[in-house]
Amino acid sequence: MTFWSSLSSSADSDRDGTVDLDEWLAYWQVALESDARYEEEVEAITDHLFTVFDTDEDGEIGPDEFVNFYGVFGLGANLARSVFVELDANNDGIISREELLEVGRQFYRSDDPGSPGNMLFGPYGV
Q1: Cα 11 off chain centre by
Q2: Nearest residue to 96 (alpha-carbon basis) of 42, 59, 53, 57
Q3: What is the largest CA-CA distance in the chain?
Q4: What is the pLDDT of residue 3?
Q5: Domains of the chain: which residue ranges?
Q6: What are the two backbone dihedrals, phi and then psi, of residue 67, each rounded to the nearest 5 degrees?
Q7: How many CA atoms lie within 13 A of 118 on its CB side?
Q8: What is the mean predicted confidence (pLDDT) over 25-49?
Q9: Fewer CB within a 10 Å sphere, N or C end of the chain?
Q10: Where are the alpha helices (DSSP H) in the chain?
Q11: Chain-wide mean pLDDT for the chain?
């Protein structure tokens, strides 16, 4: 909740205590276009996601941890395992913090529709 409170206060431009769609989209527009803001806010989100993924706190995201995370979004274990393989850039069977940060950069900033990072939260159309 602390994380959401911080994020929502950044996005609530009219300071009415709510974030409407226009404010949310404007927030992301600025956060993604500014390198400094991206590093400060978006990479912080991705880093936080790593902490959430890494349930055994060993500094790595293994396939089972990734499957559990994907389950939160209602996506199946088989799909999660196939996406995990795509996101494991060096094919060592884990996703490191650095790999996840790169995947986050691809998801948020890449213009390449074939970038593996586009599958971070599941493939489109699933």
Answers
A1: 17
A2: 59
A3: 47
A4: 63
A5: 1-38, 46-126
A6: -60, -45
A7: 10
A8: 84
A9: N
A10: 2-11, 21-33, 35-37, 43-53, 63-72, 77-87, 97-109
A11: 87
CA 80, CA 120: separation in Å to the nearest integer?
A: 10
Could you give the CA distance from residue 2 to residue 17 in angstroms, rounded to a whole number?
15
Distances (CA, A) of 65 to 52, 82, 92: 9, 14, 15
- Picking from 83, 89, 88, the residue whose alpha carbon sits closest to that of residue 118 is 83
The 10 Å Cβ neighbour count of residue 87 is: 19
Residue 117 in tokens: 């990072």
* Residues 6+ positions from 112 with CB-CB distance below 8 Å: 106
The residue-averaged pLDDT of 118-124 equals 81
Enter the tokens of residue 51.
């902490």
CATH number of 46-126: 1.10.238.10
C-alpha torsion 78→51→59→64, nearest 10: -20
Ramachandran class of 17: left when φ > 0, alpha when ψ lies in -120 to 50, beta otherwise: left
DSSP 92: S
